[in-house]
Structure formats: structure tokens, C-alpha cells
Amino acid sequence: MSADDLIIESEAKKASRVLKKGGVIVYPTDTIWGIGCDATNKKAVDKVYKLKHRILEKSLIMLICDKNVLQNYVEEVPEMLWDFMDSFDAPLTVIYPQAKNLPSSIIAPDGTVAIRITADKFCCSLINELGKPIVSTSANISGDKTPLVYSMIDEKILKKADYVVDFKRNRVTEVRPSTIVKITNDGLIDILRP
To answer: Which domain holds residue 26?
Structure first.
């Protein structure tokens, strides 16, 4: 097991203990540094909104690491989406209609939910430890600049989080936020953020 693997395992366990108690974490995602919680815990999701000073009408992204669990959270996954997702090699967030089995605070007013299937080792380790999807939203106050690297995160966010993951803090490679697409009512794919 590599040094990174040992850190991932240790930090995922620490962070998941916090998430299981309804806590909020700051962590490295497959895109940018994020604020996260158990996506199925309404009180925890509400804490994320409060921490970010985010309006409830702006829904949050949810991370999973296994496409087979999608059907637990959305009514239908269009067949053509599977090939589209498989052909995409960058982080991809899909907004699905007809969300289910989630707190109202993670579902947009129009009944949609934004889900990204991540292949990131740390995120998947954390999701597997928790046994549930996690929220992923940028680690900033709403309206402020998105922190592409750890050093850009506002001290207020770090102090108010229940746990700050100690992994990839010195990563200097800047990554951009994920591409966002939406499944339209007629089953087509609409690109919202390339």
C-alpha cells in the first residue's frame, strides 16, 4: 500500500466518522476543494447552506462512485446517457429529473438533482466508508471566488467546518469545476457548463 493510499484510508475514516454524526467537512474532490456532508441527512445539508450563506433555491451537487446506485436517487436514467457518461473522460455532473429518496434541501425546486459519479480515490474511499452519497459544493462563501487549491479557502470556512481533510493540501495543479449537463424533459442532454 502506497503512502497516499494509507493517508486516503486514514483520512476517509476520520472524515466519515464526522459525516455519520451529521457534521460538515472540507475536502479535496475530483475537481476543486469542497464542502461536504452526508447527502441524505437534511440537518447536515442545511448546515452546508448556512456555512456557505447559500440560498436554498441554488441546489447542491451530490457525489457517488458507483453508477449502479443512481437508480436509488432518480426515477429514470435515459439509456443514451450511459454511453455519453462512458465517453466522457473529465468530471461530469448530470442534472437528473425526478429525484427521490433525498432530503428536500438537496433537490432543486423543479424536482431535479445534480449528481457526479466520481472516480477520485479519496472521494470514493469516503463514500464507501460512509455508505451514502456526499454533498460536493465549492469551499467558499456563495459569490466569492472558487478555491481551486487549498490555500485559497477562506479561514472562516475552515474554522466553521467540523473537520478539514489533511490530504492534497499542497496540490498546486489547478483543476476546473466539472462540466454540467441537464437531462431535459424529452430525454435530451443540454450542456449548461462546458
So the answer is: 3-193
